[in-house]
Amino acid sequence: MKYYPGVTFERKELLDRIGSISQIGGLRRVRLQDGVEKGVEVVEFETGSGLKFDVLLDRGMDISRAVFRGANLAWRSPVGDAHPSRYEEPGLGWLRTFPGGMVTTCGLTYMGAPGRDGDQELGLHGRYSSLPASKICQWEGWEGEDYILRLSGEMREAMLFGDNQVLRRVIESKLGSSTFTLTDTVTNEGCRPAPHMLLYHCNFGYPLLDEKTVLETPHSRIEPRDAEAAEGLEEACRFGKPVPGYREKVYFHNLEHDKNGYVSIFLRNPVLLGGLSLELRYRPDQLPHFTQWKMIGQQEYVLGLEPGNARVLGRAREREAGRLITLEPGEARTYRLEFTLRVLAEAE
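^ that's the sequence the OP posted. Answer follows.
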């Protein structure tokens, strides 16, 4: 197992040096107690490689704060990790409890722009991030030479006479690793076909995101959402300093997978920690649409990397475009994201 640069131990060598695994890392469950965050339960992951992140049990097991070797990775909104009881659905009310964070999940029956779909008025990005986890299992222990950190639970979006979808999530890493995985299985447990939309709103900020940061995607084409985005298309993957009065730009990347069926998205800062690279890896046959949200305004200096099973134009427009997925009763779909941090100066 590799921990800090140049330090590698076998299992026994490590155990001979410590009184408790908590000297190196592990899982810790805590409860937030202040302001709008009061009552939110959190599981803190610490892998011992310098990677730490918080999983919000009361907010869909999404990932909020994330740090690598003391450097922040995620953009954090002024809202904080607000308790889901404060959720507001109509229109853009979702933004009142949007914490930013490394992963905010959007869905399950709708996501994207607010609007009307048939006789339903749908708010921004759906209800998922307001759903508390149940059947939570927090586990850590040895599997051979690896010390595994694993957290699982389920979130259900349901209503009487309506849809009934459940998402079962597993977040896993291991001691000494700078990689973690997030695996979701969504099942329609209702008795009728149901629309299914899912987006992983991954939000990166300073100091990972800064003037010299570059986004690299294996794209064949980048499509601007609108005229506002088209004006900045040539600089879509570069950032610069915060811009007063900046208006968000949204791009759709058409990605080419590798020979194993995966795509890898890289966000690289050549200055931070001697050169820090974040890789987001997933299968486009699971998540065929990739949205880039570029918002580099003052205090709103954030890059959203957003794999999804549809575009973010709203459910009615996705239905009209033929991109809306419908789950039959009992049907399930699985999605997996892998995040890896690397310091370029230490690359082998």
